[in-house]
Amino acid sequence: MIAIESINIFKLKERIFVESFDLAIAYTWEYDKELVLLIEKVFHSLGLKTFLISDFNLDEVCERVEDNSIHFKALLDRASDEDAKYLCMPKILSRKGTYIINPIKKTLIATDKAKVYRKLKKLKIRTPYSYIIPSYNENSDFLVEPSIILKLGIPFVIKPATFSGGGQAVFMNANDINDISSARQDIPQDKFLLQKMIYPPLNGRRRLWFRCYWFFGNAFPVWWDDQTHIYNNISKVDYKKFRIYKLVSVTRKLAQISSLDYFSTEATIDEKNNFILIDYINDQCDFRLKSNHADGVPDRIVKFFIKNMARKIQKLK
Hints:
Blueprint: H1 2-16, E1 19-27, H2 33-45, E2 50-53, H3 58-66, E3 70-78, H4 88-95, E4 99-101, H5 104-110, H6 113-122, E5 130-133, H7 146-152, E6 156-160, E7 171-174, H8 177-186, E8 192-196, E9 202-203, E10 206-207, E11 209-215, E12 218-224, E13 231-232, H9 236-241, H10 244-258, E14 262-269, E15 275-282, H11 299-315
Parallel strand pairs: 1-2, 1-3, 3-4
Antiparallel strand pairs: 5-8, 6-7, 6-8, 9-10, 11-12, 11-14, 12-13, 14-15
């Protein structure tokens, strides 16, 4: 009888001493540190508990999740896309009931430019003329017809369909089939999007190019210069003048297509103030702060992301 009671007490203690946190954060990029520090500051001010996962505790955390000695309400994973050893983490946490922000399966579909382009065409959302070509591994002998090059114009843009990396591997000034062949052989496993070059109109000295963020059900548009990569807030006057509500509406449709919690999109406008999507869905947003970096994101936008994430987590059961 005593032995049975001791076992039951031990099991009860196991259940009592489960550590619980509102948000687990995994990251590997050195510049994410300022984002993480700001998340911790805001979350702690709201009474929410955070937990950092990195190389030094990854294995231990996975073991503790498996034996139910630690639980996370949500996971912000900014590591597994850069380091494969983190891929086990969202899988394990998902099985244990943790809400995964931007789960990998949804992200892989949402960031496939070829698939998204087809969906955008069906929804009649304006994009530059584009042509999808197969991967080199799928068809090494594939050649683009001269008539396609004529439609694209010269120069044109070559984008890998799934490879992501802040503009890496994007060929901005392609001229002929040799450039296409070279790009395909550089990333032989990926499909490619050939895209017509778009030159944004000017308003004074400002290029009319935008980035719109989607954070947990809300859109946040900003000016973004595609050449200097400098962000600026949009004034109320410009919001009305350029009918930014249309960009917000398009971004909302992208959220419906992707089902992602957060992402950004790039757009410009034509002579009739119609928005044209240039880069459809970017899942791992660069959140370097403008207060620390000349080409950083306005601090208020990063704070919007954090506060909207906190509201989402507070609503989770």
